[in-house]
Amino acid sequence: MIAGPGLVAANAGNDAAGIATYASAGSQFTYGTLFFMVLVTVALVMVQEMAVRLGAYTGKGLGALIREQFSLRLTALAVACLMLANTGLVVSEFAGIGAAFGLLGVPKWAVIPPAAVLLWALVLFGSYRWAERIFLVFSLAFFAYPVAMVLGHPHWGTVGEHLLVPHVEANKSFILLAVALIGTTVSPYMQFYAAAGVVDRGSKPQDYKLIRADAIIGAVFACLISLTIIIATASAIGGTGPLESAAQAASALRPVAGRGAEVLFALGLLGASALAGAVVPLSASYAVGEAAGVERSVSRSFRDAPLFLGLFTAQIALGAIVALTPVDVIQLLIGTQVLQGLISPIVLVYLLVLTNRRSLLGAAANGPRYRVAATTVVVGVALMSTILLVQTVLGWVGLG
User: Fold this and answer.
1) Residue 155: φ, ψ to 5°
2) Where are the transmembrane segments (predicted)?
3) Do residues 228 and 19 lie in contact, with contact meaning Cβ atoms separated by under 8 Å?
4) Given CA atoms 60, 66, 68, 69 in this order, what sign does their dihedral have?
5) What is the pTM of this model?
């Protein structure tokens, strides 16, 4: 079966935080970020392909390879970055579940605890293959957004122009959102999960063609969904400024469902949040388990993999508890993506160095052209993150 870790990992990037960020891009800059998203799509395809290639040809996840190929300090840095980014993200997934049901008039305290228990049980008492199938079912919720885009009657000429012609605004708001788009599309946890998922499902080098197809199709599909969210929102509420609530984002679907737009938005938000609510903590558990050199598999029992499943349990519990507090959902979601965008370059450097090493991958290592293209992607992401960081610091000292 082609559909696997690559599709799951890429779709998990279209989580509650991703939907909020893409919708905010449409409401704030209408179609202005579309060309940028085309570039991000190319970056995601390359990054996810490198991650699954590592898993297929080495039989090891990214965390294990970093531990073997780098110093203890650099391994600790990679794991610390992932845990820092994932902590806020897990909270945002459960906040997204609460927001989805909130659109239907159901209080979050009535849905977040049972949702946490269900996601926890899915991983703890199932095999990897079974969990992966459930994750793919969650992905069906994303088809709500292409429908919204088409029936929203966007100006297709303008859409086509912005997909092909670069558009940049030299202000902090645009750069902040651009970094958030990178963070939510090329999230660090996705590379850890994609590589670990390939290993956990028992894939071998001879399976690489199918694994590669899964990674590429998954990345392209996920980014197409992202583009439809931006276009749908831009068509409905473009130019109104940043989003302030999930209900405001739901109005982007009003051309499709009229007064029932909130229900359709809630469906997409719920499916996305549930998918990432399991994948995000799993990625951190894989990374820590690999770095520590202990058993890590969804198919193992708590007795066989106490650190792996214990860390997963702790993240689920923490995310659900914090999400029950009065948090500003939209600000939490977009802020988390900015943090992901700042951390992404660090993780991508590890990924690039590992896939460049012929001593590790042999003939499957990056070729000269691929190496140049991949380096360009990493430098580009790092440059965007650096610009945002500098602007933020200048703002703190009153110079921004």
Assistant:
1) -80, 100
2) 34-56, 77-103, 109-128, 135-154, 174-194, 215-237, 263-284, 305-324, 330-353, 374-399
3) no
4) positive
5) 0.82
